[in-house]
Amino acid sequence: MQHFDGNVLAGPLAEFFSFDVTTATARCNGCGAVAELARAMVYMSPAGTVVRCATCDHVLATLVESGDRAWIGFSGVSAIEVRRG
Amino acid sequence: MSDASSLTSETGQASALGAAATRVPRAGWHVGTVVAAHRETPNAARIDLDVEGWPGNAAGQHLDVRLTAPDGYTATRSYSIASSGPATRVVLAIDKLPDGEVSPFLVDEVRMGDMLEVHGPLGAFFVWRPAAGSNAGPDAARPVQLVAGGSGVVPLFAMARAHADADDPTPFRLLYSARTPADVYFADELQELAAASAPFRLDLVYTRRTPDGWPTQARRITREALAAAVIPADQRPIVYVCGSTGFVERVASWLIELGHDPGSIRTERFGGL
């Protein structure tokens, strides 16, 4: 399955967040690596989007959209750092 | 939980780049009117949109195009923006994917006056700003190496054009891998940039066919060819790599083997193999 990287999440996540989430740094629950979301690996299918850690392949987040609802899970992220201003 | 107040990896790379995150105009949905549509290469089109309400964009950003079928089915794809600055005129250059749902329509069917739904500007990670700009980050004075595979040149061209337009003194170098001379995007503009006063060097590599008299054979880029054509690691360049996923991952891994700091390599994958 082909994959992309976290840059491609900028559009889908801009629907739900008021800042550019792709420059936020996230810590992976699997291996502890810290990286901007833009550096994550992204697998997209009609069922939804899976975001994986670029270091250990652990699932960081999932995004499923259906009609007027969306489900955003950050199951593999222990914390994110967001820059103010 | 003191460590959650500032996420830092063991190498400190993420925090260094996090600090370089730049402010970008707020994204929104807009309607763009096609004001020019031309062939860019045998397999690609350049489309100029006038986007009402567009807040401008930084060099390297992208937008999403949403097509809606009469039955309500929608398809959305991301495209890099070849232009930057405050103007509402936005330039795209789109490669036609043989099995694509969106790109064949954009490349073959779009005409002047057509209207497209666009979402943007998007992404603040794969962005470069001139050193003189008020939003210049701490990386502004470092030399910049751009590495493009095929249509991956589009956001890198926006960066090189912004660099020339700002008459920015930062050394810039673009290594561009294209199939044949006819497949080079922005061929005339890149030659103009090479002649401009802002320091810019263009290195072309052809993978299928070279121009007559070209000093090297057509072949895919190798680690050795990469080493010979990029700003050396000891000059601490910021490196932007864009192209197909396979191209980006090969180049990025070679750059790390050549001593470049992983945290100073920014990548954007267009998918494919």
Helices and strands, with pairings:
The complex is a heterodimer of chains A (85) and B (273).
Chain A: E1 4-5, H1 10-14, E2 25-28, E3 34-36, E4 41-45, E5 48-52, E6 59-66, E7 69-73, E8 77-81
Antiparallel strand pairs in A: 1-4, 2-3, 2-8, 4-5, 5-6, 6-7
Chain B: H1 13-19, E1 28-41, E2 44-51, E3 62-68, E4 74-80, E5 89-95, H2 103-108, E6 115-122, E7 144-149, H3 153-165, E8 172-178, H4 187-195, E9 200-206, H5 223-229, E10 238-243, H6 245-257, E11 265-269
Parallel strand pairs in B: 7-8, 7-10, 8-9, 10-11
Antiparallel strand pairs in B: 1-2, 1-6, 2-5, 3-4, 3-6
Strand content of chain A: 35-45%
Give the total of domains of chain B: 2
The percentage helix of chain B is 10-25%
- Beginning-to-end CA distance, first to last residue of chain A: 38 Å
Major β-sheet profile of chain A: 5 strands, antiparallel
The number of helical runs of chain A is 1
Mean of pLDDT of chain A: 95
Given helix and strand content, the structural type of chain B is alpha/beta
Strand order within the widest beta sheet of chain B: 4-3-6-1-2-5
Helix-strand string of chain A: EHEEEEEEE
**How is the CATH topology of the largest domain in chain B named?**
Rossmann fold
> Nearest-angstrom radius of gyration of chain B?
19 Å
Overall number of strands of chain B: 11
CATH class of the largest domain in chain B: Alpha Beta
Distance between the termini of chain B: 42 Å
Number of domains of chain A: 1
Principal-axis shape of chain B: globular
Keywords:
heterodimer; A: 85 residues; mainly beta; 5-stranded antiparallel beta sheet; 6% helix; globular; B: 273 residues; alpha/beta; Elongation Factor Tu (Ef-tu), domain 3; 2 domains; 6-stranded antiparallel beta sheet; 5-stranded parallel beta sheet
Task: Tell me about this structure.
A 5-stranded antiparallel beta sheet of chain A has the order 1-4-5-6-7, with no helix packed on it. Chain A has 1 helix and 8 strands. By secondary structure, chain A is mainly beta. Chain A has one helix spanning about 10-15; strands at about 5, 25-30, 35, 40-45, 50, 60-65, 70-75, 75-80. In chain A, strand 5 (about 50) and strand 6 (about 60-65) form a beta hairpin. The mean pLDDT of chain A is about 95. Chain B is of the alpha/beta class and about 270 residues long. Chain B has 2 domains: about 30-120, Translation factors (Elongation Factor Tu (Ef-tu), domain 3, Beta Barrel), CATH 2.40.30; about 145-270, Rossmann fold. Chain B has 6 helices and 11 strands. Chain B has helices spanning about 15-20, 105-110, 155-165, 185-195, 225-230, 245-255, and strands at about 30-40, 45-50, 60-70, 75-80, 90-95, 115-120, 145-150, 170-180, 200-205, 240-245, 265-270. In chain B, the strands form 2 sheets. In chain B, strands 4-3-6-1-2-5 form a 6-stranded antiparallel beta sheet. In chain B, strands 9-8-7-10-11 form a 5-stranded parallel beta sheet, with helices on both faces. The longest helix of chain B is centred in the middle third of the chain and has 13 residues, at about 155-165. Classes of the chains: A mainly beta (about 80), B alpha/beta (about 270). The interface of A and B includes residues 4 and 79 of A.
